[in-house]
Specification:
By secondary structure, the protein is mostly beta strands. The protein is 0% helix and 46% strand. It has no helices and 24 strands. A 4-stranded antiparallel beta sheet has the order 1-24-23-22, with no helix packed on it. It has a 4-stranded antiparallel beta sheet with strand order 2-3-4-5, with no helix packed on it. It is globular.
């Protein structure tokens, strides 16, 4: 859950195309690489393939993983300095993976695309950090970059990078996802340091705020228009005009990252021994009936739950 500043009560901007949903309930499953101390999923596609980052244990530095059919594959992009960290941030339904890494010897963070093992890198001109966070089936990539002491959003269409204009008075803006219709989601910080979610469809920019929250962030969107929302009230699946809390049973905090068209959600959570480290990955699967069921945790691998303080979050410099 993001730490948000200053109270405000803001009305939800209603969005068109939201998929109707009954009262949603979810079953939670651990996604853990037994060779690592920290497993942090960041993306999932409709095939159920999960991508993210692992570190600690027998893992050297910080590596990226692909998880499919119960198996982890560790892959490092060419030229990446794993001591700084490599992250796969998203995967499209046709298997394109995007993320970011620090290039060896430069200290600069670049974005990259991986299509079937063929890598291409890119960066926003003059930016110290370029961080892709979403990609759709047309290969359109979105993310954020850090330049001139500020975060801004970008859209990369076939190599042509355009920036997302901040609303009047906004100081920072992060783009976090895109669906196949081209709707971009994310959040921005206004001049009073209050965060607001947004959707961008074509040239139409719409702010989105959860009622009663002191700040709202949209973390992801699928092709039905359902979204992941993080606010001062917690983490939520938003569909059909309703908010359903996403919280791994027994966790001290939960971090939501991505969802697919089956409304499967991935992220990570804290254990009591580790504090705010987000060391355990999870998959939340929507129960088909929509009827309440007890949250369940199934340990898929035998990873040790070790104490620690590291978590690879999207670093914000303010």
């Amino acid at each position: 859950m993001s730490k948000l500043i200053k109270p405000a009560i803001i009305a939800v901007a209603l969005l068109s195309g939201i998929h109707p949903a009954v009262a949603a309930t979810f079953t939670y499953t651990n996604i853990v690489d037994s060779s690592a101390t920290y497993t942090q999923p960041y993306g999932i596609n409709n095939s159920g393939t999960i991508v993210g980052q692992v570190s600690g244990g027998s893992i050297t530095g910080q590596q990226t993983f692909q998880y499919s059919s119960g198996n982890f594959t560790i892959v490092t992009p060419p030229g990446a300095d794993t001591s700084y960290g490599v992250t796969w941030g998203a995967i499209s339904n046709n298997g394109e993976i995007v993320g970011n890494y620090v290039t060896t010897g430069t200290g600069l963070s670049k974005g990259f695309s991986d299509i079937g093992g063929t890598y291409s890198s890119f960066a926003v001109s003059g930016a110290a950090l370029t961080e892709p966070t979403g990609v759709n089936n047309s290969g359109v990539i979105v993310g954020d970059y850090y330049k001139n002491s500020s975060y801004s959003g970008f859209i990369d269409t076939a190599g042509a990078i355009t920036t997302i204009s901040k609303p009047t008075g906004a100081t920072f803006l992060w783009a976090t996802g895109i669906n196949d219709a081209g709707t971009v989601v994310g959040y921005y910080r206004d001049s009073s340091s209050i965060t607001h979610g947004f959707t961008l469809s074509g040239s139409t920019f719409t702010s989105f705020d959860q009622p009663g929250a002191t700040g709202t962030e949209i973390i992801g969107i699928n092709n039905s228009g359902n979204m992941l929302v993080s606010s001062s009230l917690g983490n939520f699946f938003y569909g059909g005009g309703s908010f359903t809390a996403i919280s791994v049973p027994g966790s001290s905090d939960t971090y939501i990252r991505s969802l697919n068209d089956s409304n499967q959600i991935v992220g990570s959570y804290d254990t009591a021994s580790c504090g705010s480290c987000g060391n355990i990955g999870f998959l939340a699967t929507m129960n088909a009936s929509g009827a309440p069921e007890p949250g369940t945790i199934e340990l898929l691998t035998g990873a040790a739950l070790a104490a620690g303080a590291f978590v690879r979050r999207r670093t914000r410099v303010v």
